[in-house]
TrEMBL record, chain A:
PANTHER family: NADH-QUINONE OXIDOREDUCTASE SUBUNIT F. It comes from the Bacteria. SMART domains: NADH_4Fe-4S. GO terms for molecular function: 4 iron, 4 sulfur cluster binding; FMN binding; metal ion binding; NADH dehydrogenase (ubiquinone) activity. It comes from Methylocystis echinoides. Coiled coil: none annotated. Residues 425-470 form the NADH-ubiquinone oxidoreductase 51kDa subunit iron-sulphur binding domain. The keyword Hydrolase does not apply. The lineage of its organism: Bacteria, Pseudomonadati, Pseudomonadota, Alphaproteobacteria, Hyphomicrobiales. This is Formate dehydrogenase subunit beta. Keywords: 4Fe-4S, Iron, Iron-sulfur, Metal-binding.
TrEMBL record, chain B:
It comes from Methylocystis echinoides. Belongs to the complex I 24 kDa subunit family. This is Formate dehydrogenase subunit gamma. The lineage of its organism: Bacteria, Pseudomonadati, Pseudomonadota, Alphaproteobacteria, Hyphomicrobiales. Its cofactor is [2Fe-2S] cluster. [2Fe-2S] cluster binds at C82, C87, C123, C127.
Length: 516, 158
């Protein structure tokens, strides 16, 4: 029986993985070959998807990107024993893209069957939770604090401090909420973890619940991810069956349940307080802080809200100890960053690395430059509210503080590359338009500012009082940045200001040329 | 695609009742109603307000806040085309505009035969395969004009 891996990851499915799996099974049956097809997560080499892996004595040999039309020739070439074929990329673990990484959060993603509890356990799964039970709740909080783990949602808030605040609240109903509303363009790490290693998120939530005294956890998932819904729901059931969720988990006396909730297409619900409103069944309108959700959160109870990646990293921190994690990275950016390389690139995908790697190395070397083959013009780092970084700043290391010093952000670690055909005035306009569409409407700077922003950029585009309107736009950005209630309005100026700062020529084109 | 069932107050009440044990049940109920009827009609909003003991205005506010919920029927199939930055970096904006022009549609509109509604979406998480789209629940990477046109044809057939 030969084991074959074909990803169920949404990106692989979007490139035909489901049809490929059917074709491989059919061809194997027709040829009388005994195969077992495992639907794994993605290894992150997305330009190779769908990537078929075959288990051989030498290791897992990869073939990609494989199409249905390649199936017969793969069998002819003896791919079940690692035979030579134009799509053969060799042993996947030895691939240069994999070898350059330091996989911590993504160590199991693409490797194991995401829905097999025994496989998860065989790859160190649930060791973190077991250790949590051994050392007790206060020590778990201490461990997470010492690891230096920070939120992956944008602001980079220390996870341990959040947990301690909730743990210190009086006992009673508390909640663990995972923000899986990954709405930023160029980000897909949360999706990949939830499809490729969902049990790590469930384990992280259970550890958190145990540490802070919560018995209920919610995952708030955006509705644009239909594959995650299926995989994660199944993972919750598997964890229950195996006794890792539910009453008295493994005889610890600790009860914990996880429920998956689906959003409804509102970007602002990625902001933690509007996410809570949405979970409560209301309009996703931002709450003023304080009170912090840690004190008054879901249904008015103390609540930990963490991003998927922070939560999925927690089991490893508990298993290996805080120091192991803290020793990775640079400065105050501890650990690793799963970078999501996207947009106009040759080799797009997920690349997990220690903090500190320069931006230019990622774009030119790891991502192989643009897919169109044209020169790079800009990279938007950290989602639609992130800054456009020009080639002249390619020395910047991936580090929260280094980016902040250049008025930019790392956010979620998404990189969207643009070639020299990109019109930065248009991208700035889109940034404002997006904010106008997605604003929850509670505060004036965001609600009105974004609409006026689009109008002002249109005037600049039409060549109307260009310099005066650029000044007005800057002023508007300033108001939004410092007057908005949450990060949607507060960060929307980043793409606009960075486009203005680094690409001033795009704002001063003759009117006719600037038109579409 | 789900959502062919004709609306009845009785069926709506059943769906609502099935979710009332959840904490904060409004969004799960709305998803379930839309899956059943293809949209969330005004009468269902009224039933929900009653069951949740909130005003109809408040319930209406919830339904209209979210892009996913719609109060009138859409086409039998839905094509969501990504307009976010990553897809734009690979020319999605022009591609989508050309597509809409070819089929004489605007964002959010349904083809005259009622077969397909075209909606914008802001990121499908398929950013390494830009430009991307979602046809009903089927993700598609590296789409071109031809792929998009094929969905219009496919929708017509069913």
């Amino acid at each position: 029986m030969t084991k074959i891996y074909i990803p169920l990851d949404m990106a692989a499915v979007a490139m035909g993985a489901d049809r490929l799996a059917v074709a491989v099974a059919k061809e194997a049956a027709a040829r009388g070959q005994q195969v077992e097809i495992v639907r794994n997560g993605s290894r992150g080499m997305l330009w190779l998807e769908p990537l078929i892996e075959v288990e051989t004595p030498a290791g897992r040999v990869g073939y990609g990107p494989a199409k249905v039309k390649d199936v017969a020739s793969l069998f002819d070439a003896g791919f079940l024993t690692g035979g030579a074929h134009a799509l053969n990329i060799g042993v996947v673990d030895e691939h240069p893209w994999m070898k350059r990484q330091n996989r911590v959060t993504f160590v199991r993603c693409g490797v194991i069957d995401p829905l097999s509890v025994p496989e998860y356990e065989a790859h160190d799964g649930f060791k973190g939770l077991k250790r949590a039970f051994e050392i007790g709740a206060p020590a778990v909080v201490e461990e997470v604090t010492k690891s230096g783990l920070r939120g992956r949602g944008g602001a980079g808030f220390p996870t341990g401090i959040k947990w301690k605040t909730v743990a210190d609240c009086a006992p009673g109903q508390k909640y663990v909420v995972v923000n899986a509303d990954e709405g930023d363009s160029g980000t897909f790490a949360d999706r990949m973890i939830m499809e490729g290693d969902p049990l790590s998120l469930i384990e992280g939530m259970a550890i958190c619940g145990y540490a802070v005294g919560a018995s209920k956890g919610y995952v708030y998932l955006r509705s644009e991810y239909p594959v995650v819904v299926k995989v994660f729901q199944a993972a919750i059931e598997k964890a229950h069956e195996a006794g890792w969720l539910g009453k008295n988990i493994k005889g610890s006396g600790f009860d914990f349940d996880v429920e998956l909730r689906i959003g409804a297409g509102a970007y602002v619900c990625g902001e933690e307080t509007s996410l809570l409103e949405s979970l409560e069944g209301k309009r996703g309108i931002v709450r003023a802080k304080p009170p912090l959700p840690a004190h008054v959160g879901l249904f008015g109870k103390p609540t930990v809200i963490n991003n998927v990646l922070s939560m999925a990293t927690v089991p490893m921190i508990l298993e290996k100890g805080a120091k192991h994690y803290a020793d990775l990275g640079v400065g105050r950016s501890r650990g690793t960053m799963p970078l999501q390389i996207a947009g106009n690139v040759k080799f797009g995908g997920l690349f997990e690395t220690d903090f500190g790697i320069p931006l230019g190395v990622i774009v030119n070397d790891i991502a192989g430059g643009t897919r169109t083959g044209r020169p790079v013009k800009a990279v938007q780092v950290g989602g639609p509210l992130g800054a456009y970084v020009p080639v002249s700043l390619f020395d910047l290391p991936i580090d929260y503080e280094a980016f902040a010093a250049k008025d930019s952000l790392i956010g979620h670690g998404g990189l969207v590359v643009f070639d020299d055909t990109a019109d930065m005035l248009w991208m700035a306009r889109f940034g404002m338009e997006f904010c106008a569409i997605e604003s929850c409407g509670k505060c004036t700077p965001c609600r009105i500012g974004s609409t006026r922003g689009v109008e002002t950029i249109d005037k600049i585009r039409n060549g109307q009082d260009v310099e005066k309107n650029i000044e007005l736009l800057k002023d508007l950005c300033h108001t939004m940045k410092f007057g908005s209630l949450c990060a949607l309005g507060g960060f929307a100026p980043y793409p606009v200001e960075s486009a203005l700062r680094h690409f001033p020529e795009d704002f001063r084109k003759p009117a006719l040329e600037a038109a579409e | 695609m789900a959502g062919a069932a004709p609306y009845s107050d009785e069926r709506a009440r059943e769906i609502i009742a099935a979710h009332m044990s959840l904490e904060g049940p409004a969004l799960p109920i709305l998803h379930a109603l839309q899956a059943e009827f293809g949209h969330v009609p005004e009468s269902a909003v009224k039933e929900m307000a009653q069951a949740l003991n909130i005003s109809r205005a408040e319930m209406h506010g919830v339904v209209t806040f979210y892009h996913d919920f719609h109060t009138s029927p859409h086409g039998r199939h839905t094509l969501k085309i990504c307009r976010a930055e990553s897809c734009q970096s690979m020319g999605a904006e022009k591609q989508a505009n050309d597509f809409l022009a070819r089929h004489k549609l605007e964002w959010g509109q349904t083809t005259p035969d009622g077969s397909l509604t075209v909606e914008p979406v802001y990121c499908l998480g398929l950013c390494a395969h830009s430009p991307a789209a979602l046809y009903d629940n089927e993700p598609v990477g590296v789409v071109d004009g031809e792929t998009l046109d094929a969905f219009v044809e496919e929708a017509k057939g069913k």
